[in-house]
UniProtKB/TrEMBL annotation:
Signal peptide: none annotated. It is found in: Cell membrane. One of its GO terms (molecular function) is transmembrane transporter activity. This is Major facilitator superfamily (MFS) profile domain-containing protein. Keywords: Cell membrane, Membrane, Transmembrane, Transmembrane helix, Transport. It comes from Paenibacillus stellifer.
Amino acid sequence: MKISKEQALTLAFTFLAFILGTTEYVIVGLLDQVAAGLGVSIAEAGAFVSGFAVAYACGTPFAMALAGRFSKPASLMTGTVLVVLLNICSAFASTYVLLLVFRIMTAVCCGLCVSLSISISTDVVPIEKRGRAISYIMGGFSLANVLGVPIGTFVGMHFEWPAAFILVGILGAFCLVLLYRVVPRDLPNAQSRMSDQFRLLTHPRVLLAILIPVLGVAAIFVNYTYIVPLMTEVMRIPADRTGYVLIVYGAATIFSNIISGVIASGNYMAKLKVLFLIQAVIFAIYGITVSVPWLGILGLIAIACISFSINAAVPIYFIHLAERFVPAAKDFASSLMPIGANIGIAVGSASGALVMGHFGLRFLPWAAVGFALVSCCVTALSLSLDEGKGRSRTRDASL
C-alpha cells in the first residue's frame, strides 16, 4: 500500500520521537548502574533525569529563536545530528559532571527537534488531521518506553551502561537518513523571535495553561523516575525481572497514545479534567497496593495506560492560545508542551527524591495523587475561562 507524503512525514517524526524519547528515558532503567559506575548515589544520579528536563525547558526557547534564522528542515537536521553525536559522547563520559554536561546539551537539541517536528506537522498536515498526526508523533515517546527503555536497559545491564547510549546514537543515524528523504525542503523559517516568545510566555492564560503539562507529567514522573528501586525494594521484584516489567509497562503506554488521540477531538479540555481525576484514583489505589507484587504490577500497568494521554490535546491547546493572543509566536507555541512536560519531569523527579529521602519509596504514589488533583483544578479553571470568553463573544454578537 502506497503511503502519502503526509503519512511518510508523520512516520519519520514518530521514529524521531522514539529516538528522542529513548535518549531521555533510557537512563531511568540504568540509574543503578550509572550511579555505581560513576560512584554517586541514586538520588544524585536522579539529576541526570531532572537536569535533562530543566535544560530542555530552559534551553528550547533559545534554540528555537536561533533556528528562526534558518529554514526548519536545516534546523531539524542539525539538531538531529547533534543528538546523535552527543549520545556517543555520553557513552564515553568518565565522570559525573561530564555526563551531566552532555545530558544538558542533548536536552536542548531534543527540545529543538521535538518543537520543529510539531511545527512542521502543523504546516504540512491539514487542520482536521493535526490531532491524530500529533498523537502519532508523540506516540514515538510511548514506543520509547515499549522498546527503547527495555532494550536500552537490557543492553546496559549486559554490556555496561555506555552501550545503551551508543545504540541510541546508531539508531539516530538511521533516523537522520529517513528525515533527509521525507522532510520537504520548501518550508519557511521558524517564526520564533525572542520578543514574541516573551509575550506568549508572559500572557496569564498561557502561564496558567503551562501548569497543565507541568503538573500532569510530574504526577507520572514522581514515580517513574524511581520505578526500578520501587520494584526491587517495595514491590520485592527480583532485579533480573525488572526489565520484563518495564517492557509490559512500555507496551501499556501504547494504549495511552490511543486515548490521547481520542481526547484531542471535540471538547478536549473537559476530557482532560476527567482524565486527571481518574489518574488521581489510579495512583491512590497503587499507593495502597504497592507492597503486594502482583497488585503493584497491575497498578503500574494502569498508570502506563494513561501516562501519555495528554500529549495530543495540550499542544493543540497551546497553538490555539497562540493564535488567539500572540499569532506571531505560533511556531514557538508548538514547543510549550514538551517544555512544560520536561519541567514536569524535573519537578516530579526532584519531588520524588525529596519524598524518598524524607518518607521512603512507598510514599511516592501519594505525591502523584496530589499532583494529579492540582492538575485537574488547573484544567477546570482554564476551561472555565475559555467558556466565559465564548459566552462573552456570543453576547457581543447578539447586540
